[in-house]
């Protein structure tokens, strides 16, 4: 046994050393601090790996069906769905339409126990606890004037603290970031109770960290920034290159939950998750773009390595989300890993909705796909010859296709039947309920002492 351990150690050191030059992102100077963070993040990816993703899929589907039963069954939800008036804001009594929201939204005292939100997460990001148990940090200043010495009370000052924090906001505000906002681990950014926007500046960077929750915000008009010396913790400043213009960039990070976030018009991607990022749930989002910008939502890439030690460890879920006007492609685009795309409403795309390369496994369940472009009917796109992708497992299960939309399935279509001990014959919610389940997608207008 001791000999075996001794043999693994040099291989592990080699692998970490081999990936460090690749895992640079916008880091201009890969100093000792960033090297340590990269190595720690790589190790967390190995430990965060969920070896049986179908267990997580079935856990989510089971919660969905429990919520449907508690809401009066499919017929009652269908009645409510047909009453929805598109383009009209709902003004009736509080109602919840999916299991995540059922956990907290209609409690008028939600503001007295913000940490309860943690108990509501589902999917691969369900382990994210953010700043639970830490201090409540109140952002009272919307400025971002000092990148090297952020002012106390600003969002930048909050996210660089090296302790768990639950970050809330004193009032409604628009925050224009002078440079990318680099977060440390164990943070929740909670925009409930006010209207918080990150807009007209840089975006949020989640790099080589863990345990992040971003909730109830609007992120829009994100642009590239030139970079420079930026403080990334209370004890370290680093030289950064130009940021890409992503709304949220997740790089080599683990246990991330993004919920009730509205996003539009980013120079690059809305959400970009790459390089070993794993354990991600994106839920209740509302994603649109009105300027025909090429958009990207890529929940997960694998850790690049020449060794089998770091295999394809990525697990991500996109659920109960509306992907709407002027969306072009990559919703998501996947490489390696396992992706569960469930109960989402795809109302527009100009090229394709779901794409991939490098052998990802994609399970599409209970989604509604509406093709709105005369020359873009296919939901899927593979970036390699058919002789290769025909072996990839891409499954459509219970999806609805309208206006000529179609999904090119491939690989093993009997994955559920072959694994009854994992699936237990539990299906996602019917795609006919997607309109109802996504009714309250995006940022919520929450007020204290009232249901959201």
Automatic annotation (TrEMBL):
Q: Where are the transmembrane segments?
A: 6-27
Family annotation (InterPro entries): AmbAllergen, Pec_lyase, Pec_lyase_N, Pectin_lyas_fold, Pectin_lyase_fold/virulence, PEL
One of the record's GO molecular function terms: metal ion binding
User: Pfam families annotated for this entry?
Assistant: Pec_lyase_N, Pectate_lyase_4
- Which reaction equations make up its catalytic activity? Eliminative cleavage of (1->4)-alpha-D-galacturonan to give oligosaccharides with 4-deoxy-alpha-D-galact-4-enuronosyl groups at their non-reducing ends
Pathway info = Glycan metabolism; pectin degradation; 2-dehydro-3-deoxy-D-gluconate from pectin: step 2/5
Q: What is its EC number?
A: 4.2.2.2
Q: Which domain of life is it from?
A: Eukaryota
Q: Which residues form the Pectate lyase domain?
A: 172-375
Keywords in alphabetical order, please: Calcium, Glycoprotein, Lyase, Membrane, Metal-binding, Signal, Transmembrane, Transmembrane helix
Q: How is the cofactor bound?
A: Binds 1 Ca(2+) ion. Required for its activity.
> Key word Translocase present in the record?
no
Instruction: Provide the cofactor list for this protein.
Output: Ca(2+)
Q: Which PANTHER family match?
A: PECTATE LYASE 18-RELATED, PECTATE LYASE 6-RELATED
Q: Which family does it belong to?
A: Belongs to the polysaccharide lyase 1 family.
Any idea what this protein is called? Answer: Pectate lyase
The species this protein belongs to is Sesamum angolense
Give the lineage.
Eukaryota, Viridiplantae, Streptophyta, Embryophyta, Tracheophyta
């Amino acid at each position: 046994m001791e000999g075996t351990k001794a043999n693994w150690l040099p291989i592990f050191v080699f692998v970490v050393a081999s990936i460090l030059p690749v895992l640079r992102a916008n880091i201009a100077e890969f100093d000792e601090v960033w090297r340590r963070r990269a190595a720690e993040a790589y190790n967390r990816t190995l430990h965060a790996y969920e070896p049986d993703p179908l267990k997580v899929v079935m856990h989510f589907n089971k919660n969905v069906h429990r919520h449907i039963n508690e809401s009066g069954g499919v017929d009652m939800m269908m009645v409510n769905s047909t009453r929805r008036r598109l383009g009209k804001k709902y003004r009736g009594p509080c109602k919840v339409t999916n299991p995540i929201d059922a956990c907290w939204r209609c409690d008028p005292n939600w503001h007295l126990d913000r940490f309860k939100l943690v108990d509501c997460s589902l999917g691969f990001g369900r382990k994210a606890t953010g700043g639970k148990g830490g201090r409540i940090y109140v952002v009272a200043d919307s400025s971002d004037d000092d990148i090297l010495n952020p002012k106390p009370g600003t969002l930048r000052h909050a996210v660089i603290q090296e302790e768990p924090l639950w970050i809330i906001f004193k009032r409604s505000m628009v925050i224009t970031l002078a440079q990318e906002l680099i977060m440390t681990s164990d943070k929740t950014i909670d925009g409930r109770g006010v209207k918080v926007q990150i807009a007209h500046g840089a975006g949020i960077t989640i790099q080589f960290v863990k345990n992040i929750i971003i909730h109830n915000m609007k992120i829009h008009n994100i642009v590239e920034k030139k970079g420079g010396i930026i403080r990334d913790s209370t004890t370290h400043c680093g030289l950064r290159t130009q940021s890409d213009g992503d709304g949220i960039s997740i790089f080599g990070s683990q246990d991330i939950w993004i919920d009730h976030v509205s996003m539009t018009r980013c120079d690059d991607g809305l959400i970009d998750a790459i390089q070993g990022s794993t354990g991600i749930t994106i839920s209740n989002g509302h994603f649109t773009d009105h300027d025909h910008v090429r958009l990207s939502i890529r929940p997960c890439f694998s850790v690049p390595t020449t060794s089998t030690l770091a295999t394809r460890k990525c697990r991500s879920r996109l659920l109960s989300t509306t992907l709407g006007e002027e969306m072009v492609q990559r919703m998501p685009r996947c490489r390696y890993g396992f992706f569960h795309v469930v109960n989402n409403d795809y109302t527009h795309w100009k090229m394709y909705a779901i794409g991939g390369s490098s052998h990802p496994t994609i399970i599409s369940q209970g989604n509604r796909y509406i093709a709105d472009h005369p020359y873009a009917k296919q939901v899927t796109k593979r970036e390699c010859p058919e002789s290769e992708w025909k072996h990839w497992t891409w499954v459509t299960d219970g999806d609805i296709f309208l206006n000529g939309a179609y999904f090119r399935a491939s690989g093993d279509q009997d994955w559920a039947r072959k694994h009854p001990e994992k699936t237990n014959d539990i299906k996602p919610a019917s795609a006919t309920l997607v309109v109802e389940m996504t009714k309250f997608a995006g940022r919520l207008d929450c007020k204290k002492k009232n249901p959201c």
